[in-house]
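Reviewers of the previous submission asked for a worked example of the structure-prediction workflow described in the proposal, so we include one complete record here. The input consisted solely of the amino acid sequence. No template or homolog information was supplied to the procedure at any stage.
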Amino acid sequence: MRLKDRVAIVTGGGVGIGKAYVHGLAKEGAKVIVADIQDSEAKKVADKITADGGEAKAVYVDVTSVEKTQVMAQEAMKAYGRIDILVNNAGLYSAIKKKSFMEIDSDEWDRVMSVNVKGLWHCVKAVYPAMKQQGKGKIINVSSGTVFGSSPNFLHYVSSKTAVIGFTRALAREVGDDNICVNSIMPGLTISTQGPMTAERLADRRRRRAFQREQYPADLVGTVIFLASDDSDFMTGQSVNVDGGVNMH
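From that input alone, the workflow returned the following structure tokens.
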């Protein structure tokens, strides 16, 4: 097991792709903090891992809150005594309705940025002291493949996920001396996060992939495990696109 006795925090770990990340990390031996604003769902995931012989703990978190993210890190330290991996997965997507940039109001723009960008910053600040003290850490931010070709009527979301790439690169420069790797994963349109996409656009996305099938959460898990493991120890500031060959860069 590549992550035996490592401690991982996955935000948004109770549902969707985050749930797949949690199960994948646990199967590789990690002790996982399932952090989610949907605490009942997080508890179900943690209970399933425990029942299967792994170690997991559900923790309520609202990533827009400095205090809640600090408590999340404190709970991880209290339960397992260290923090090795942070997967900054929590984000707003499915709940956002597509609309012209002229129709997006300031409150909605700020809400998307608060979760998708500022939330990452809060979580990093919460876990950094533990990683610095340990002399090693892995931070994995979740961007999106939509930053390559963009997506009409989704200006706030695309802007937020583009910001994640800049955030990843800038942070990697700051924490390199602490032996902390900071990378991002860029999922393509995944079956659990299709949200506001129409059936026609989903079919078009399948046709544009080199692998002409749906993308599933499981397709992303291996990349996250690689970025969380010792195999990526000399890799930082990178954004890894995993979309089945829609975008090739």
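The chain has one domain: 7-242. We consider this example representative of the routine output the project will generate in years two and three.
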